[in-house]
Amino acid sequence: MDVDVVIIGAGASGLTAATRLRAAGHSVAVLEARDRVGGRLRTETIEGALLELGGQWVSPDQTALIETVEELGLETYSRYREGDSVYVNAAGELTRFTGELFPVAADTQKEMERLIAMLDELTAEIGPTEPWAHPKAAELDAVSWGEWLEKQTDDVEARDNIALFIAEAMLTKPSHAFSALQAILMAASAGSFSHLVDADYILDKRVAGGLQLVPITLAEKLGDAVHLGAPVRRLEWSEDGVTAHADGLTVTARRAVVAVPPNLYGRISFEPPLPFRQQQMHQHVSLGLVIKVHAVYETPFWREAGLSGTAFSPYQPVHEAYDNTNLDDERGTLVGFVSDLKADAMLALPAEERKRRILESLAAYYGPQALEPVVYYESDWAAEEWTGGAYAASFDLGGLSRYGADQRTPVGPIYWSCSDVAAEGYQHVDGAIRMGRLTADEIAATLA
């Protein structure tokens, strides 16, 4: 097969790039290793329950995603958030609250407010586009997120809670495993650190039928240009073009888009090998670890108790949980997250023991009724061969300032496109779409 552009990966970024390139008059072929499209977006019906196993939320700042959803004619609805949220402290004590900040002692609240204001200022100053170019970049990249917080305050609970918004909730790595600069990029990509604190903002709406409908609908419009079950094993390249060797299919093209997360680049044999700069860079990025827990109940019983379903604690195995009830569903669904070291501990347990521990953690928020779901399912992204972790790749200490500027630098005819290298919308579907658009436009300019 001979086309203008071959795209490796049928996630939101690759399919967006393919759609945009075709609209510009170029022929495309999309090669996908899995037997489905969507990448880190996946919706399945399990025991009669519709569950979004991957990414799912749409926030107001995600304009590229919102535009795509509207263009595709998909329906959105608001996440349920009426009533009180709950917070469990280190002593296991539960407190109901409203608003954004957790119910903590007055001194701790002041520290949290001070840290949030400081981080908002840094985020605005450094920004998401070129954080590595800021005068403080090397300094912030040489210290871990956890160590940076320790230097700012002696209040342990304030540190634990502020750390949660980046470590457990977003990068899904321990606070010692990534830099303060990486944390600031995460906040900047969402508009501010305050946006990450505000669950009603960052987890605003859902797509009826699941967010995977975005890539599914894009793929349907591309038709037979999308090839499933076709992992690319070898990519031969020169300044004249590429030849992609996939299972059962060989495609020659003038350009290639590698639209998979950076941890999967090594699954492709590049001939000739990539330049040393790229090879080194790719060794300094990795995905985190999270278990996404789905618990479906006969009714959303927490609502009767005046609870929104929103729950937080850096001290529980399930560090955050939400009402995830589907549109027009009489049953109630809770979704919870277990990340980084806590996920390690849970995954080391037999399945039934892990389920018991996780449900006990949900019960710490919602009461004993949470112990008896009618459907229970765990999404373990790290166990998926063509994912390998969650939610997106981040650099180790010093990596962002050292390599960040080169993440998207083309290698001859090869371009890179995924949410992992986005500025705005980093590690979200919005970022994947933004990168797909940008990459397509860059390639189209070279083919004109």
UniProtKB/TrEMBL annotation:
<dbReference type="InterPro" id="IPR001613">
    <property type="entry name" value="Flavin_amine_oxidase"/>
</dbReference>
<keyword id="KW-0560">Oxidoreductase</keyword>
<dbReference type="InterPro" id="IPR050703">
    <property type="entry name" value="Flavin_MAO"/>
</dbReference>
<comment type="similarity">
    <text>Belongs to the flavin monoamine oxidase family.</text>
</comment>
<dbReference type="InterPro" id="IPR002937">
    <property type="entry name" value="Amino_oxidase"/>
</dbReference>
<protein>
    <submittedName>
        <fullName>FAD-dependent oxidoreductase</fullName>
    </submittedName>
</protein>
<feature type="binding site">
    <location>
        <position position="232"/>
    </location>
    <ligand>
        <name>FAD</name>
    </ligand>
</feature>
<dbReference type="InterPro" id="IPR036188">
    <property type="entry name" value="FAD/NAD-bd_sf"/>
</dbReference>
<dbReference type="Pfam" id="PF01593">
    <property type="entry name" value="Amino_oxidase"/>
</dbReference>
<dbReference type="GO" id="GO:0016491">
    <property type="term" value="F:oxidoreductase activity"/>
</dbReference>
<feature type="binding site">
    <location>
        <position position="13"/>
    </location>
    <ligand>
        <name>FAD</name>
    </ligand>
</feature>
<feature type="binding site">
    <location>
        <position position="337"/>
    </location>
    <ligand>
        <name>substrate</name>
    </ligand>
</feature>
<feature type="binding site">
    <location>
        <begin position="32"/>
        <end position="33"/>
    </location>
    <ligand>
        <name>FAD</name>
    </ligand>
</feature>
<feature type="domain" description="Amine oxidase">
    <location>
        <begin position="13"/>
        <end position="443"/>
    </location>
</feature>
